[in-house]
Design a protein that fits this description.
Helices cover 67% and strands 2% of the residues. The protein is mainly alpha-helical.
Length: 448
């Protein structure tokens, strides 16, 4: 504020610095001595002025920091996040089961929603020890949560020595729980998924761990195979879900097998899996159908002239693709028909419905049964964070052939579309979805 001349400061004396400061910050009407109005006392004015000056200095310091302030804020947020994660790790060693479960859940959310390689590399042994203890001595809920968090830890550490070392430490415990028929079904499911994903992430092709893990998972889901008379065993409560998890983990590891081992696996499992298409559990039937399509695809990749000579299998797939059994839930029937149409279309015509997954300014195409199995496996464990990991996690980017993570400047992101343009786009998309859904609702679509 420019300094005014002494003669225009009302009743203030030239030698009084306190009065000069008061007059400088008074409203114009009060500064010039408006008649008939009694102003506030000097003490009140001084308090207001000091408060005003303090606020002004704070604003000035923020403006002077400029872009540096953003860096400070980002660094502060990073430090706060790390402090919270450290507290979660400390909670894993707490005596209270409730506190340990809360720590596991917080770590699960953090590991699935962001990439924390640098932070976790320094603390991986501590976390692994805590998870190992939870798997050995924890409650049912704690064991299942610990298996999931350990899977996420391996994904965070990537395919390096750190993940492999951690997997070798925990694999004996996962194995012991998985083959224990007296263990809880939900815990065994989590261990089956953890065994498949951690082995996929941390071991090399043709490794000893890969062969052992394949055999172990086979021993679980092959109990659903038909007996010598060709009839399926009566499933025990919860066993279809366990067989489903083991089969999906096994099919993920099959994508790593060399051709010599693949040939043996395909010849042995395809006929047995065909019989499992008659399973009473819809989710297991779907998993079996997708595994059959994956195995046929892998065989065709090895031998372009391979033909699946099985009319009975095609008839079975057609029956499931057009299933209208009213004894089954409507959503189950719709999901089953959708999957088995895709399976049948691939078996008969070698045609695959390509799916485009968008994240940030990039996208990845799921254009084969192998890529679908791999993507679905990561999506199951990372949930909504799978797109973030596709964008920033070097492991996933390497698996899907995306190269190093992109570093984009804010100015390169392009102009934002207006609200009106966004509204027009959403309206057009909504109309297209409505037309597509109308076709799906048509009863004739069920028998196409």
């Amino acid at each position: 504020m420019p300094r005014s001349k002494k003669g225009k400061r009302g009743s203030s004396k030239p030698g009084s610095l306190r009065q000069e400061v008061l007059q400088l910050h008074l409203p114009k009407g009060v500064r010039n001595g408006v008649k008939g109005e009694s102003g506030p006392s000097d003490d009140e004015l001084t308090s207001d002025i000091l408060s005003h000056c303090s606020s002004a200095s704070e604003c000035t310091s923020v403006l002077e920091e400029g872009l540096g302030g953003e860096q400070v804020d980002e660094q502060t947020a990073q430090e706060e996040t790390e402090d919270k994660l450290k507290q979660c790790i400390d909670n894993l060693m707490d005596k209270s089961t409730k506190t340990r479960l809360a720590g596991l859940e917080s770590l699960r959310q953090a590991f699935s929603s962001r990439v924390l390689y640098d932070f976790l590399t320094e603390r991986r042994l501590t976390i692994t020890d805590c998870l190992e203890r939870s798997l050995k001595k924890g409650s049912v809920e704690e064991q299942a949560a610990a298996a999931t968090v350990f899977t996420l830890l391996c994904i965070q550490l990537g395919g390096g020595d750190e993940a492999e070392e951690g997997f070798k430490m925990v694999r004996p415990i996962l194995t012991a729980i998985l083959i224990d028929n007296g263990a809880n079904i939900a815990v065994r499911q989590s261990c089956a998924r953890a065994l498949g994903m951690c082995c996929y992430v941390s071991t090399a092709e043709e490794g000893e761990d890969l062969i052992k893990s394949l055999a172990l998972l086979e021993s679980v889901f092959t109990s659903s195979y038909p007996n010598r008379e060709g009839t399926l065993p009566t499933p025990k409560p919860g066993s279809p879900a366990l067989h489903n998890a083991a089969l999906q983990a096994w099919s993920l590891l099959v994508t790593l097998c060399p051709e010599s081992r693949l040939t043996v696996l395909l010849d042995h499992h395809l006929p047995k899996l065909q019989a499992c298409l008659q399973s009473s559990d819809v989710n297991y039937r779907i998993a079996v159908g997708e595994t059959i399509a994956l195995l046929v695809e892998l065989r065709r990749d090895m031998d372009e002239e391979f033909e699946l000579d099985s009319e009975s299998m095609c008839e079975c797939l057609k029956s499931l693709a057009t299933d209208g059994n009213k004894h089954r839930a409507k959503n189950d029937r719709r999901k089953q028909r959708s999957v088995f149409r895709d399976v049948l279309n691939y078996i008969e015509n070698e045609d695959f419905s390509v799916e485009k997954i968008r994240f940030g300014m990039e996208s990845v195409y799921v254009d084969s049964w192998m890529r679908r199995r791999i993507y679905d496996a990561f999506k199951e464990i990372l949930e909504s964070g799978v797109r973030h990991h596709l964008q920033f996690n070097p492991l996933l980017r390497d698996i899907f052939g995306l190269g190093p993570p992109l570093i984009l400047d804010a100015a390169v992101k392009g102009p934002k579309i207006s609200r009106f343009e966004k509204h027009l786009f959403n309206s057009a998309a909504f109309k297209a979805r409505t037309k597509q859904r109308s076709k799906v609702r048509d009863k004739r679509a069920d028998v196409m």
